[in-house]
Design a protein that fits this description.
The complex is a heterodimer. Among the domains of chain A are: about 55 residues, no CATH class; about 130 residues, Serine Threonine Protein Phosphatase 5, Tetratricopeptide repeat (Alpha Horseshoe), CATH 1.25.40. In chain A, about 70% of the residues lie in helices and about 0% in strands. Chain A has 17 helices and no strands. Chain B is α+β, with helices and mostly antiparallel strands. In chain B, strand 1, helix 1 and strand 2 form a beta-alpha-beta unit. In chain B, helix 1 runs parallel beside helix 10. The longest helix of chain B is centred in the middle third of the chain and has 15 residues. The radius of gyration of chain B is 24 Å and the shape is globular. The two termini of chain B are about 45 Å apart. The chains are: A mainly alpha, B alpha+beta. Chains A and B meet through helix 10 and helix 12 of A and helix 4 and helix 5 of B. Chain B: It comes from Hapsidospora chrysogenum (strain ATCC 11550 / CBS 779.69 / DSM 880 / IAM 14645 / JCM 23072 / IMI 49137).
C-alpha cells in the first residue's frame, strides 16, 4: 500500500526537528509507563482505558496494550450492574446513539426480520425510558450497553486500520470484539453487527477486488454468519451472485472465480439439484467461461477456472463433483466439445500459449477417460508451445511424454 | 483610486469565453493589472449557459440568417409547443441551457490544470455514462415493425463480454481492435497504420480488423467525428483517449461534465479567480477600437496600445487578448446545426449506472450514423447526428425533465433532420406501452467556427481562435491558452521558476481532494 517502495528519508534533521521528535518520544514513553504501571497494579478502570486509546493510536503494534485494553473492556462488563458506568461513555469516540459503521452501502444479505425492532427499542424504549440505568430492567439494558461498547470499539479500530491496514493486532482486536459480540448479545443483534462487517468487506473488495486477504476474511465472516450462533442461514446463493458481479466488473478476478468454484458444490446441494439440474448447471458454467475466454484468452485466471471444470468432469465422482451421474461417454463428449471450442479460438488468436496448453491438457484428460483418439494437430500444438514459451521446454517435454503414452 | 484611463494595464482581455477565462486564471497570481471585459451582459461568450429568459433574449439577438453577418451564431429560433396540462415548463431560472456543451475526458489536460491551479474545487463534475447507437425500427413485410432502440456501445473487455448483441467471432475482432488501440502509438502497432494515417478510419476498420458495419458504427461513435470521415491518425488518437480515460476517476466512466451548464461554469471559475487576483471585470463593455500606430507607441513605449471601450473610455495597455475576427466562407470553416430541446421525462433508462458502485451518470451520448434519419422527402442524413442527453442532475433543468442537445453538420436540410432525429430518439426511449415524452421547448440555431486554429500574435495584440466545435473537449485549446499566456508574459524577466497554472491554495485550506 502506501508504505511500499518509499525510500527512507535520510536528510539531516534540523535542530528544531530533533527537539520536536525528542518531545514526541518522551510523551510516548510517559504514556507507556503510565499504562504499564496501571496494569501492574491490576487497575483496569476507565483511566487506564483512556490511556490505552492514546497509546494505541500512536503505536498499534503494541500488542500488550491491546491486551490491557481487552481487560479494561471485560472489567467494564463485570462492573456494570453495580455502578452503571461503562467504558463506552468514557471513550473518545462516537455518541451513544448508534453511529452506523462506515460500511453499509453495499447490498447486505437478508437478516432476520426482527432486527429493525431491536433498533427501535435502543433509541427510545417502549415505555419512554432511554439510556438511564434502570434498576428494574437490568438484562435488557446490559446487552444494549454491551452493543454500544462493541460498536465503539469497532469504531476505534477504523481510523487505525486506514493508517495501518496490515497490522495484525488491530485485526485481531476487531475479531475479538466481533466474537465477544456473539457471546454477549442476543443472536439477532450480533447478526446485525456481523452483517455490517460483511458490508465493510464489500467496501474493501470494491477498492481492491483481488486482495486475497479480504476474500479470505470474507469467507470467515460469511461462515460465522451462517453458523447457528448467528443467523444460521446459508449465504451460498448470494455469495454465488456476488462472484458473478465481481467477474462482470473485471474478468481477471482470480479470487472471484476461485470463490465461485468453492461455492458450487454447496449451492447445488442446497438447491437439491436433480441430475438434470446439475447437468444444466455444468453446461451453463462451461458456456460462461467460454464467453469469457472468447474475449480474454490471454487471461490465466480464466483458464484456471476452465481447468477446474474439466477436472470436475475427469475426476471420480465425489461430493465436489458438479454432475456425478454423468456416464463416461457423456463426460468424454463434453471434453471433446471443449477441445473443438478451444480450437475455434485459434482462428483468431494464434499466438497465445494458454490455448495450446489447454488443448493438450484436455487431450490428456479425455485420454484418462479411455479415449485413445489422438487429435491430428497435436504435434503442431506442441511445436507452437515450444515456440511461444521456450523457457519451459522441460515442461513441454514432460507433456509430450505423457501424450506419447496415449 | 485610479480610474480606468489612469491605470497602466498590463493585459486587457476581451471576451469571457473559455480560453480568455482560463488565461485570467493563469494570470491570477501574477500581480499584473488585468482588465477583463465582455460586450455581453453574461459570462461565457460562446460557451455560455442560459436561463429560458436569457435564451429567448439571446435568440432574439441572433435571429439573422448566417450570410448576413459574420458572427458565430445565426438563425436562432425558439419554439414552445402548446403547453400540455400540468406537465409544462417550470420557471425560467430552473433551466441552464448550454450553447455548446462539451464532455471532458478524464485524461484531459484541462482537468489536470484545474487541479494544479486549485480551481477544480469550485466546479462539481458529473459522470458521463454510456455511449449509444440509435437503431432505426425495422419494418419488413414479413414481421411486425419493431421499435427504434438504443444499443449501448461496448468500450471495455467486460462490456464486450456482457453484450448479447454481438456474435462470437465479431467479439474477437472487436477485442483485437481494442487491444490494438490501447497500444496504437508503440511498435509494432505503428507499422500497421502510420503509413495510412490520412485515410478514413472507417475503411481501415473494415480492411484491417474485418469489423462489420454494426461494429464500425460503434467504433466511429467513440471518435465523435462530426463528418464521419475522421482519419486513421486522428481517429485512433480519439479512441485511445476514450479508452485510457475509462476508470481514471472511478469505475464505469471515461468523461465528466461540469454541473450547472458545462464549460460556462469553468469560464466563471476562471474569471472569479482572476477577480480575486485583482483583475477588474466589466460586462456589457466591449473593445471598439485598437490603436497601435508608431505615433501612439512613441508616446509611451511601455504601453503601445490605445484601446477604446464601448462605454466611451479610452485606456492604455501593454497587451490585448481578443477573439480572432471570424472569417466565414473559408474552406476549413465548420458549421453546425443545433437543436436544444427540453423534454418532459427523466429518461432514466438512459442514465443507468454502468455497474455496481459506479456513480449515476448525468450525461449520455447517442449517435445516429449517417443515413438512419430521413426527411419526409426521403432525403437521408448525410452526416452523423449526435444527441447529448443531460439529466436534471446537471442542474440544467428541474427533476422529471431532461435536456437533449442535438447537433449535426449544416446542410440545407439539417434543421429538419434534427427535428426528425429528436422524435426518433423519443420513440426509441419509450416503451411500447408508455406515453411518449413531450417536447416543452426548442431552441435551434447555427454555429460557425472560423478556419483558424492557432493563436495569432501581432506585436502586442493576441488573437484567440474560437473554441473548436467538438463534442468532446479538445486539449489543443489548453495549448492556445498557454500560447496567449507566453505572449503576454514575454516581457517579464526570464525566470526559470515561473510556474504555469500551478498555484497553492490561497488561505492554506486543507487539501481534501478525493476523486474516488
Amino acid at each position: 500500500m502506501a508504505r511500499h517502495g518509499i525510500a527512507r528519508d535520510t536528510r539531516l534533521r534540523t535542530e528544531e526537528e530533533r527537539e520536536f521528535e525528542l518531545g514526541v518520544i518522551s510523551r510516548y514513553r510517559s504514556l507507556e509507563d503510565q499504562v504499564r504501571q496501571k496494569a501492574k497494579q491490576k487497575d483496569y478502570g476507565q483511566d487506564t482505558f483512556q490511556l490505552t486509546s492514546k497509546l494505541l493510536q500512536r503505536n498499534p503494534e503494541y500488542y500488550t496494550v491491546w491486551n490491557i485494553r481487552r481487560r479494561c473492556v471485560i472489567s467494564g462488563f463485570a462492573s456494570r450492574p453495580s455502578d452503571g458506568s461503562c467504558p463506552s461513555k468514557a471513550s473518545s469516540s462516537s455518541s451513544p446513539t448508534a453511529t452506523p459503521l462506515p460500511s453499509s452501502d453495499a447490498p447486505l444479505p437478508e437478516s432476520s426480520a426482527e432486527t429493525p425492532q431491536s433498533r427501535d427499542s435502543q433509541t427510545a424504549g417502549r415505555s419512554g425510558t432511554t439510556h438511564d440505568v434502570d434498576g428494574g430492567k437490568p438484562s435488557r439494558q446490559s446487552w444494549e450497553d454491551d452493543l454500544e461498547v462493541f460498536k465503539s470499539e469497532l469504531h476505534f479500530t477504523v481510523p487505525l486500520l486506514l493508517q495501518f491496514p496490515k497490522c495484525y493486532w488491530i485485526w485481531n482486536y476487531r475479531l475479538w470484539t466481533l466474537n465477544q459480540a456473539i457471546e454477549r448479545l442476543p443472536a439477532r443483534v450480533a447478526t446485525k453487527v456481523w452483517e455490517e462487517e460483511l458490508g465493510l468487506v464489500n467496501k474493501m473488495l470494491h477498492k481492491d477486488p483481488r486482495n486475497f486477504h479480504a476474500w479470505g476474511y470474507r469467507r470467515y465472516v460469511v461462515d460465522r454468519l451462517e453458523s447457528s450462533e448467528l443467523a444460521g442461514k446459508s449465504l451460498a446463493e448470494p455469495e454465488l451472485e456476488y462472484t458473478a458481479q465481481m467477474v462482470r466488473k473485471d474478468l481477471s478476478n482470480f479470487s472471484a472465480w476461485h470463490h465461485r468454484s468453492q461455492l458450487i458444490p454447496r449451492v447445488l446441494r442446497e438447491r437439491e439439484a436433480s441430475d438434470d439440474d446439475r447437468r444444466k448447471f455444468l453446461e451453463s458454467e462451461l458456456a460462461l467461461i467460454r464467453e469469457a475466454l472468447n474475449v480474454g484468452p490471454e487471461d490465466q485466471s480464466l483458464w484456471f477456472y476452465h481447468q477446474f471444470l474439466i477436472s470436475n468432469l475427469v475426476e471420480s465422482p465425489g461430493p465436489q463433483t458438479i454432475a456425478p451421474t454423468l456416464t463416461e461417454d457423456e463426460r468424454k463428449t463434453y471434453i471433446r466439445q471443449e477441445i473443438d471450442e478451444i480450437e475455434d479460438l485459434l482462428e483468431d488468436y494464434g499466438d497465445i500459449k494458454w490455448i495450446y496448453e489447454a488443448l493438450i491438457q484436455c487431450t490428456l484428460a479425455v485420454s484418462q477417460l479411455g479415449d485413445r483418439v489422438v487429435p491430428k494437430d497435436l504435434t503442431s500444438w506442441l511445436r507452437k508451445l515450444r515456440d511461444l514459451d521456450p523457457q519451459r521446454s522441460g515442461r513441454w517435454a514432460d507433456l509430450e511424454s505423457q501424450l506419447a503414452a496415449i | 483610486m485610479e480610474s480606468l484611463s489612469d491605470t497602466n494595464w498590463d493585459v486587457v482581455i476581451s471576451g469571457t469565453g473559455l480560453q480568455q477565462s482560463l488565461l485570467a486564471l493563469a494570470l491570477s497570481r501574477s500581480g499584473k493589472n488585468v482588465l477583463h471585459v465582455d460586450p455581453n451582459d453574461f459570462y461565457g461568450a460562446a460557451e455560455a449557459a442560459f436561463s429560458l429568459q436569457e435564451a429567448d433574449e439571446w435568440a432574439g439577438k441572433n435571429r439573422d440568417e448566417p450570410t448576413l453577418t459574420p458572427s458565430i451564431f445565426a438563425a436562432a429560433e425558439v419554439t414552445k409547443p402548446a403547453t400540455v396540462g400540468e406537465r409544462g415548463l417550470s420557471f425560467p431560472r430552473a433551466y441552464s441551457l448550454a450553447l455548446a456543451p462539451q464532455i471532458i475526458h478524464t485524461k484531459s489536460e484541462l482537468l489536470s490544470q484545474l487541479v494544479s491551479s486549485k480551481a477544480f474545487r469550485q466546479v462539481e463534475f458529473l459522470a458521463v455514462g454510456s455511449f449509444y447507437i440509435f437503431q432505426p425500427s425495422s419494418s419488413s413485410s414479413s414481421e411486425a415493425s419493431t421499435q427504434p432502440s438504443l444499443s449501448r456501445i461496448p468500450s471495455t473487455r467486460e462490456d464486450v463480454f456482457a453484450s448479447t448483441a454481438i456474435p462470437t467471432r465479431a467479439k474477437r475482432s472487436l477485442m483485437k481492435f481494442l487491444k490494438f488501440v490501447l497500444e496504437y502509438d508503440a511498435e509494432p502497432q505503428t507499422e500497421a497504420w502510420k503509413a495510412r494515417a490520412g485515410e478514413p478510419l472507417v475503411e481501415f476498420l473494415a480492411s484491417e480488423f474485418k469489423l462489420d458495419e454494426r461494429l464500425r458504427a460503434d467504433v466511429m461513435t467513440l471518435t465523435l467525428s462530426l463528418d464521419g470521415a475522421i482519419s486513421v491518425g486522428a481517429g485512433l488518437a480519439a479512441i485511445h483517449r476514450h479508452m485510457t480515460s475509462m476508470g481514471l476517476f472511478g469505475a464505469g466512466f471515461a468523461a465528466v461534465y461540469p454541473k450547472w451548464g458545462g464549460l460556462s461554469e469553468v469560464a466563471q471559475v476562471g474569471c472569479r479567480a482572476g477577480a480575486v487576483g485583482g483583475a477588474v471585470y466589466m460586462l456589457g463593455t466591449g473593445v471598439t477600437d485598437v490603436q497601435k500606430t508608431e505615433e501612439e507607441r512613441n508616446l509611451d513605449p511601455e504601453l503601445p496600445l490605445g484601446i477604446s471601450l464601448s462605454n466611451g473610455i479610452s485606456i492604455r495597455a501593454k497587451t490585448l487578448v481578443q477573439p480572432a475576427q471570424l472569417q466565414t466562407g473559408g474552406g476549413d470553416a465548420v458549421s453546425l446545426s443545433r437543436l436544444t430541446a427540453i423534454v418532459s421525462s427523466d429518461m432514466s433508462s438512459v442514465f443507468e449506472a454502468m455497474m455496481d458502485g459506479a456513480p449515476t451518470p448525468a450525461v449520455a451520448v447517442v449517435a445516429f450514423p449517417p443515413g438512419c434519419i430521413s426527411t419526409d422527402g426521403q432525403e437521408s442524413s448525410k452526416f452523423p447526428i449526435y444527441a447529448m442527453l443531460h439529466s436534471s442532475d446537471t442542474g440544467e433543468c428541474p427533476t422529471g425533465q431532461c435536456v437533449v442537445y442535438l447537433s449535426t453538420l449544416s446542410t440545407p436540410t439539417s434543421k429538419t433532420i434534427l427535428e426528425k432525429a429528436l422524435s426518433s430518439l423519443l420513440a426509441a426511449v419509450t416503451d411500447s406501452d408508455s406515453e411518449r415524452p413531450t417536447v416543452l421547448y426548442k431552441l435551434s440555431y447555427e454555429q460557425t467556427s472560423g478556419s483558424s486554429t492557432s493563436v495569432n500574435v501581432d506585436g502586442a495584440v493576441v488573437d484567440l481562435p474560437p473554441l473548436p466545435l467538438d463534442l468532446a473537449f479538445n486539449d489543443a485549446v489548453m495549448g492556445q491558452v498557454r500560447a496567449a499566456w507566453d505572449a503576454v508574459t514575454k516581457c517579464d524577466e526570464p525566470d526559470g521558476s515561473v510556474q504555469y497554472m500551478k498555484f497553492e491554495d490561497r488561505e492554506g485550506a486543507v487539501d481534501d481532494d478525493n476523486f474516488d
